[in-house]
Amino acid sequence: MAQLIDGKKISAEIKDELKEKVAALKAEGREITLAVIQVGNDKASTVYVGNKKKACEYIGVRSLAYELPEETTEEELLNLVKELNARKDVNGILVQLPLPAHIYEDRILLAIDPDKDVDGFHPVNVGRLWIGEEGFLSCTPAGVIQLLKRTGIEISGKNCVVIGRSNIVGKPMAALLLRENGTVTICHSRTKNLAEVTKQADILVVAIGKPNYITADYVKEGAVVIDVGIHRNADNKLTGDVDFESVSEKASYITPVPGGVGPMTIAMLMCNVVRSVGK
Fold first, then answer.
1. Would the N or C end of the chain have less CB density within 10 A of its end CB?
2. Element (H, E) at 232
């Protein structure tokens, strides 16, 4: 039976460490401010934004909330981003996705100053990640690395398979595993004989976007399995991309859903926010 990797516990440890750092910065007279912009009232986005505000409050960071109506134009949003870029008292800017259909997301993300882009989505930060320069890391993949490291799981020299090639998880996940000297394979919807590839993985990171898709047949005995997916099933219970019951019988370590990768995303956002004070 696999050991659980407790994302709640590890994220709480990280936030406590950050709380101490923020207190030390305040003692030096340095304040940190995160500006959070939400357009419209998407329920999931409202929950995420609320959690981010709570995390800021916990570690001692000031947060500015900009809750804009659904009909906000792209030009109005761009003007707000431009204003926040120019403000010396704002260290980080976060635009909550998804945006309403009439606003071009890429245009908004590109407008954020890369040195205030605490989500790590700007092409400059993506480039910094791939060439090994300092920059803001994409929060969910950075959280996965911390889960592995703080659980004592060695990445260097291991066969690491990532299922998914999105810009938010799959691609940056591969880059971060490479940075830790893992040997990385990326799989996706066109991968042939998927189970043959995934069975080679010492570390399997699943971000396929299909509930309970990865069963024990896809997993090598003793592999470490990280489930990035999150869905609600017919009973309204949260579930991941991995069939937890069958895979936990075969894996050595596994992340639960909920309580695995999810809490780490906000913890790593807070890491980026604290790092932003030095930018």
1. N
2. strand 231-232
